[in-house]
Amino acid sequence: MYAFDFEKPSTVADAVAALKAEEAQPLGGGQTLIPTLKQRLAMPSKLVSLTGIDEMKGVCVADDGAVCIGGATPHAVVAREAAKSYPALASLAANIGDPAVRNRGTIGGSLANNDPSACYPAAALGSGATIVTNAREIAADDYFQGMFATALDEGEIITEVRFPVPEKAAYMKFEQPASRFALTAVFVAKYADGVRVAVTGASEEGVFRWTEAEEALSSNFSPDAVAGLSVPADGMIGDLHGTPAYRAHLVGVMTKRAVAAAG
């Protein structure tokens, strides 16, 4: 670690003002940023903690039925408070990391970091969520722009995430046992106008929608609908945990399991 300034504002406006300082960086739960600082892979001059902003915490259901989650809400709170309104999302949150991670990590921090193996990006993209910031609203389809890349501008803060609740949904994750990140995972959500399928942990480009499976499932929402489908291995992640071909195979397996669980 090294010396840096630390600020903990109590309002979004104060946080935005603090982030205008040169080389300032927002701090959510710190589950990614703190290890990065320890390894000196990032050296901001100031950390602006978002954990003291009450308006960015909590889970509620809007008048249109969408589940709204504050950007500074820990995973454990999502798991508990969204259990009735959006069970698939709550189940996803309940299986992120370990208890320490779930009680510190936040949904806003996860989506802002956009790790290619994180769980929340699959939920947001699979649900067609809206990412709300201090400046605008961004559709999930426009938000995710590649590995660790998003549509966020410098100093922009995720204040809330709005999830339209589907008729049916499920998330299936094949875990890397040490980190509990997704080696490959799939979020499936069935809406009145069609099915969305989001895949995380597999692609070098980060989370993505499997449109071929969406089309098949929109006509027939059953595991059999995707039995003959596959994604190409080109562009899949290859590492000591699995080859690109293995991850491509897992996409199909986890999709069928998610559909079965949702149905």
Q: Would you kindly provide a written description of the structure presented here, covering whatever features stand out?
A:
This protein has about 260 residues and is of the alpha+beta class. The chain folds into 3 domains: about 5-50, Uridine Diphospho-n-acetylenolpyruvylglucosamine Reductase, domain 2, CATH 3.30.43; about 55-165, Uridine Diphospho-n-acetylenolpyruvylglucosamine Reductase, domain 3 (2-Layer Sandwich), CATH 3.30.465; about 170-260, CO dehydrogenase flavoprotein, C-terminal domain (Enolase-like, domain 1, 2-Layer Sandwich), CATH 3.30.390. About 30% of the residues lie in helices and about 20% in strands. The chain is built from 10 helices and 12 strands. The chain has helices at about 10-20, 35-40, 75-80, 85-95, 100-105, 105-115, 120-125, 140-145, 210-220, 245-260; strands at about 5, 25, 45-50, 60, 65-70, 130-135, 135-140, 160-165, 170-175, 180-190, 195-200, 210. Strands 4-5-8-6-7 form a 5-stranded antiparallel beta sheet. A 4-stranded antiparallel beta sheet has the order 9-10-11-12, with helices on both faces. A 3-stranded parallel beta sheet has the order 1-3-2, with no helix packed on it. Strand 10 and strand 11 form a beta hairpin. The protein is globular, with a radius of gyration of 18 Å. The chain starts with a strand and ends with a helix. The model has no long low-confidence stretch (mean pLDDT about 95).
CATH class term of the largest domain: Alpha Beta
CATH topology of the largest domain: Uridine Diphospho-n-acetylenolpyruvylglucosamine Reductase, domain 3
Order of helices and strands: EHEHEEEHHHHHEEHEEEEEHH
Write down the domain tally.
3
The CATH architecture of the largest domain is 2-Layer Sandwich
Order of strands across the main sheet: 4-5-8-6-7
State which percent range the strand residues make up.
15-25%
Shape: globular
Derived structural class: alpha+beta
How much helix is in the residues? Answer: 25-40%
Task: Report the average pLDDT across residues.
Answer: 95
